What does this fold into?
Amino acid sequence: MDLKTLTYLIVGATFVLYIGIALWSKARSTGEFYIAGKGIHPVVNGMATAADWMSAASFISMAGLIAFLGYGGSVYLLGWTGGYVLLAMLLAPYLRKFGKFTVPEFIGERYYSQTARLVAVICLIFISFTYVAGQMRGVGIVFSRFLEVDIITGLLVGMGIVFVYAVLGGMKGITYTQVAQYVVLIFAYTVPAVFIALQVTGNPIPQLAFGSMVQGETVYLLDKLDGIVTELGFSAYTAGAKSTIDVFMITLALMVGTAGLPHVIVRFFTVPKVRDARASAGWALLFIALLYTTAPAVAALARMNLTETIQAGPVGEATANLAYAERPNWFRTWEKTGLLTFEDKNGDGRIQYYNDTNAEFSATAEANYGWKGNELKVDRDIMVLANPEIAGLPNWVIALVAAGGIAAALSTAAGLLLVISASISHDLVKGMLARDISERHELMVGRIAAAAAILVAGYLGYNPPGFVAQVVAFAFGLAAASLFPVILMGIFSKTMNREGAIAGMLVGLVFTMSYIIYFKGVFIEPLAENLPENWLFGISPEGIGSIGMVLNFIVAWIVSRMTTPPPEHIQHLVEDIRIPKGASGATH
It folds into this structure.
């Protein structure tokens, strides 16, 4: 069976499964729509949390980043993994004990202020829409390549699937759908990794293959990869490409941003008891680790397979590079997506894939064999998806990867769209504009808000502000700078008041968003070149959320000391949250 037909069958089967689950688990109350009625088993919630957490950035883009950045790309792996541990240990049990529907609701009640709640809603919407842009781009990439439809058609199909199980099922439908999506995405990620690890090193366990020798040779995988890429003018794969301060700041922003992500936090509201929140956090970490410990091996194997396919011999030899006319089928199909492009700069009909940002290498290459610059551009978001094709794996494995990429993107997109919907219907409409609205009408408003959010998400997928992991990193930076500090202080500080929380959120959000726009031009032209010498203290836009977080803490502390302390009942509330008396049996 040809790849296109097989892909349609496998992806179509997963869509039928998702829709069937949504119809079976349709939400019939606001409690089921927002937090699945607080009735999800910890193991199920752990699996759903893992799917919610492992977005298109984790499935599609993270290994691609590591493949091209090498050691420097590990900041994403470390930041996202460490951040989840921070969330599970520091915030999740306490927020579950508080027992509300949304993060803005917690902030509004803890800081006894509807204004604080409104500012939290604004922060949440900025974060969630920035994040969902990356997910919808992932959907577009998978559809445009594997189902061979244009991106608009692919986005419309993806939007339609999310509409069914997010709008009908709410959190209840999303939870059980995410369990199915986790199973799909983890098989889709690990199966080709096992095949390729066995093919290259003879070891079927990717985590061990990463440190193994190449099959039939007496050289280790990473040593061989270092030799290949340095010969082409690139930095050694195992060498750090970023400054120490930028690595630290990006890792910190990703960690604390993780702990401030509303769509992940809300998952811990869905379990019956506080101890279940802790248990589901542990299960989720186990499920997440299956993919995250595999990613470095996938990245290294993908980079080596790609480079060896293009570079067939020593640099400079006439037959060293792949003739464009003889390029393999996977190359031709990815060219159609525009994510893989070739420009024959020296007119020799061969693909010159070298690093043209290395001035010393460029001068030598031009003098010795007439090189005119790098001729191949590879979008890092295709590495995981194209890797099985490059390695020549069976069509069913390639089709499975397509289904996994879509599952990863849709699972996170659904969670994000739900928190946007809940913020609009529960925090804005129910909490501020129409407090006497009936539960039936609130549920209807929530579904309308979810539908509207899906339309905006589709537009962002068609016109994204960057590659998947980069866009997601911006969302984490915004979460780190705006929501994380006020949630943390709301749990552990009895003296933090509403004025300090509001001022801190606004300063953190505005500073971080302005910095990102200034250098990256999200949705607009950048105002300055995104070069290390132009960055504040050498910190990239991906890491600037760390500075925004520090500013949030400082401004909040100063303002709280200059204004009235919180009422006594709020201070008692903080004590009750922080010291979980009888937590093991708490159900509220």
In short: The first strand starts at residue 340 and ends at 342. Confidence is low (pLDDT under 50) at residues 580-588.
